[in-house]
């Protein structure tokens, strides 16, 4: 990966030269349409809404933007940061897209996460002379995202960069701060993203994957980049990525709550309730991997010795996200995404019915987690983590579609359900 912006050029020069840049060859513009990337759970739901935008009704103000799936949210990266994905290949021709509304949609998405550390991944392949936004729009977009948005973005990964995008960033260097410029990284092959995020959790468009394969095939054998590492077989004592039922079977006392959850929540209950921004900060990825390896090797972990609140918080979120099936289960996906249709005075009863239908391991672990998060929220005057803020952090880690990725239009309903669960946990788990 590279994060260098090498040359200074004035803004007038940028304006003069940008139109001369060639975006894509004719061959690049003739890729077949993407395969459907909707999960089974989402296509089932699409019977209520249009299949191209399964969670936004046609009269929603952002329906015409959301239906293209240009912007997606994909859980957390390897550092515990939220991942926002922008797909250039899904942008329709200029005359078919309201770019100002696209900008507002992107801002609305980021508004949910800018108080936390987050990562932005931009898949550049598929940007052509037909769908590229204007130079003025790009300048407006950069200026529209003030310090609130730039402060906590920890990295911007530009995947499959071309000479166009590299030159564009050089031309924009006069208005890009040095601090922000250091966060920009070029990613030549999808396999390089594995250092940042598990690619299987990203809804990578089919044409982007095909383009990546084409790039690999064009290289000499000696220059081939490494393929994404295959998933390792589970270790005898593996904890991460293992079903809750198996973890319970391994437990000496038939405990329904996994040891990772007991360790992290026990430590955070003692030392994390007064930490401002708990669950919003990332952790050292090396330490995260070391702790995961200890758990997966059967070695006890004592967070009191490590004394790192943010590390424990990231380990908890990572454990939940790496479960083979989300804690709230695929079975409840449609019910939860449609939960907004439940009348307010009946929500507690419906939530109680839903969570009590969970397997015992899931129900007990969920109750343990929500009870703890209620303690966090009770100290929100100090730690700034209200139920709404906690829902934004934990919603995508409690439920996702069968494809492992998170449709952006499903984020809101899932987060709203999580917030309602926190608001009424005393009625749901009584």
Overview of this protein structure:
It is a single chain. This protein is of the alpha/beta class and 430 residues long. It has helices spanning 11-18, 40-45, 63-66, 99-111, 135-144, 147-150, 163-171, 178-181, 206-217, 244-250, 259-271, 285-296, 303-306, 309-321, 333-337, 347-356, 360-378, 380-383, 387-398, 408-423, 425-428; strands at 71-76, 82-87, 118-123, 153-159, 184-187. It has 21 helices and five strands. Helices cover 44% and strands 7% of the residues. Strand 1 and strand 2 form a beta hairpin. A five-stranded mixed β-sheet has the order 1-2-3-4-5. The longest helix has 19 residues, at 360-378. The model is unreliable at 3-54 (pLDDT under 50).
List keywords for this structure.
alpha/beta; 5-stranded mixed β-sheet; 430 residues; disordered N terminus; 44% helix; 7% strand
Secondary-structure content class: alpha/beta
Question: How large is the count of helical segments?
Answer: 21
Given as residue ranges, the uncertain stretches (5+ residues, pLDDT < 50) are: 3-54
Q: Report the portion of residues in β strands.
A: 5-15%
Within the largest sheet, what's the order of strands?
Answer: 1-2-3-4-5
Average of the residue pLDDT scores: 82
Order of helices and strands: HHHEEHEHHEHHEHHHHHHHHHHHHH
The span between the termini is 51 Å
Largest sheet, if any? 5 strands, mixed
Rg over C-alpha atoms, rounded to the nearest angstrom: 22 Å
